[in-house]
């Protein structure tokens, strides 16, 4: 006691064990019953604020009461990403091993921003990036030199957006070192109309004028992949205007339709014009551990950086993004910081160590490597390949089921475990707006049922429904049920 206040023993090992078990039991019950909740949240804005007090509690409360409130007030208002009937966006995989790794990450609670801050946390991260690089059959130039590579390396970020900003900063500084004053106003970034909008956000953050971001159209003729010819035309037009090509994004598995850009061909264009080539494989990168998908990454030896998200389809709980760079020095020169208190006086100058503070935006960071390590060790490459292939086979079935129903059409070729479809135009509804309205109505009806959750995209000015298979607990019966639900709602909304 001090000044009449009780002491707070916030990390008592016995209390830690008991309360952690309570949380695990709570989550186990949630996973058992998750398919009983409407998949998409039905919460209205402000509904939780009306239930909670206006101020924080003065005195602590038992964890059992807190968990009871989570079950009563929080769970019903969530959109349940771990539901087996979740087919929206892309998966946010959770797994027992991912949760165990997350517990170790949170429980150890180290911050390996420098080698000295936690040496083996840093080393484990280096090893994990090399393991993943080899599993995905990325070129050796992305391996750390200690892993038998050519002096590249990798880092774990929280999201693709962080990885994109870091690579854009590196590309910017590399280009500016050769340009005169106001050179940043001349730099141009290129991506397709299927590339993730995070590249536009990243370009703005690093100072590229929005008017210097080129969104290059794609079409059905290239399966919505970016073509080398279209990039060359855009680049040549910018060069004629006195602008400087800076950065080109190639995507393996675009967000909208899962399109795959020709990495090798775009790499040749990037090399010809001195651009930084980044390969974004946030979703589909997980599939590259399967030999049948590795052809999609051919040509990556011409890339400056590659990224993928194990938290999407690799059974690794949020958050975890792998970024590899061929030249770490270009990345760290753009991001390094120097403070006296971060200098390790015990480290020998001859020892080449990684200080991950210089590979990312923030100083502080989580021990994500231990989570990825647990997942890889617990399931192994064979188990993870089976996980990927199971979802792909489900998507193949769904694609064929859609094609067999004459009311629907598949809009883009199925890639990986994503199927994009819509109701076909009908004689009474030939106009695009009328067809789009019917498909909106269909999607809203499916989601309002609570029995499944999907989202849409727009391709060639058409409203398209996406079914992305990848939730950890999704089985074939859930995919069949989703298709039957779609058929049921289509029957209800279509006129006779």
TrEMBL record:
Residues found modified as N6-(pyridoxal phosphate)lysine: 312
Name the record gives this protein: Tyrosine decarboxylase
Lineage top rank: taxon: Eukaryota
Pfam families: Pyridoxal_deC (PF00282)
UniProt family annotation: Belongs to the group II decarboxylase family.
Keywords: Decarboxylase, Lyase, Pyridoxal phosphate
Cellular component GO terms, alphabetical: cytoplasm
Biological processes per GO annotation: amino acid metabolic process; carboxylic acid metabolic process
Natural source organism: Triticum aestivum
Cofactor dependence: pyridoxal 5'-phosphate
GO terms of molecular function: carboxy-lyase activity; pyridoxal phosphate binding
């Amino acid at each position: 006691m001090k000044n009449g206040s009780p002491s707070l023993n916030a990390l008592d090992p016995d209390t830690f064990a008991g309360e952690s078990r309570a949380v695990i039991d709570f989550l186990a019950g949630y996973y058992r019953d998750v398919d009983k909740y409407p998949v998409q949240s039905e919460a209205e804005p402000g509904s939780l604020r009306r239930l909670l007090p206006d101020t924080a509690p003065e005195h602590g409360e038992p964890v059992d009461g807190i968990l009871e409130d989570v079950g009563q007030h929080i769970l019903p208002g969530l959109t349940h990403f771990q539901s087996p009937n979740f087919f929206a966006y892309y998966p946010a995989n959770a797994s027992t091993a991912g949760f165990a790794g997350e517990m170790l990450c949170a429980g150890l609670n180290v911050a390996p921003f420098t080698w000295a801050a936690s040496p083996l946390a840093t080393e484990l991260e280096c090893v994990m990036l090399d393991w993943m690089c080899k599993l995905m059959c990325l070129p050796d130039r992305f391996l750390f030199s200690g892993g038998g590579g050519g002096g590249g390396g990798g880092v774990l970020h929280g999201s693709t957006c962080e990885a994109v900003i870091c690579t854009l900063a590196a590309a910017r500084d590399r280009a500016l070192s050769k340009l005169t004053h106001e050179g940043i106003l001349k730099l141009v970034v290129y991506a397709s109309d299927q590339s993730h909008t995070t590249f536009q956000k990243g370009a703005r953050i690093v100072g590229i004028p929005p008017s210097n971001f080129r969104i290059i159209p794609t079409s059905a003729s290239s399966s919505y992949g970016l073509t080398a010819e279209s990039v060359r035309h855009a680049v040549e037009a910018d060069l004629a205007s006195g602008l400087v090509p800076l950065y080109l994004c190639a995507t393996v598995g675009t967000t909208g339709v899962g399109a795959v850009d020709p990495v090798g061909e775009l790499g040749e264009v990037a090399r010809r014009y001195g651009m930084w080539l980044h390969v974004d494989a946030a979703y589909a990168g997980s599939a590259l551990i399967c030999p049948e998908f590795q052809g999609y990454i051919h040509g990556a030896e011409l890339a400056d950086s590659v990224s993928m998200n194990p938290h999407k389809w690799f059974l690794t709980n949020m958050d975890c993004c792998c970024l590899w760079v061929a030249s770490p020095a270009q990345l760290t020169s753009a991001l390094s910081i120097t403070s006296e208190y971060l200098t390790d006086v015990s480290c020998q100058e001859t020892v080449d160590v990684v200080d991950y503070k210089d590979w990312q935006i923030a100083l502080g960071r989580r021990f994500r490597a231990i989570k990825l390590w647990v997942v890889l060790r617990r399931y192994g490459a064979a188990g993870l390949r089976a996980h990927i292939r199971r979802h792909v086979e489900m998507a193949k079935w769904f694609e064929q089921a859609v094609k067999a129903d004459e009311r629907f059409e598949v809009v883009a070729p199925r890639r990986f475990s994503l199927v994009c479809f819509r109701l076909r135009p009908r004689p009474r509804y030939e106009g695009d707006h009328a067809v789009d309205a019917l498909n909106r109505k269909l999607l809203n009806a499916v989601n309002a049922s609570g029995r499944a959750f999907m989202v849409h995209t727009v391709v060639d000015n058409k409203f398209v429904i996406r079914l992305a298979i990848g939730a950890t607990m999704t089985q074939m019966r859930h995919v069949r049920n989703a298709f039957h639900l779609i058929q049921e709602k289509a029957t209800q909304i279509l006129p006779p």
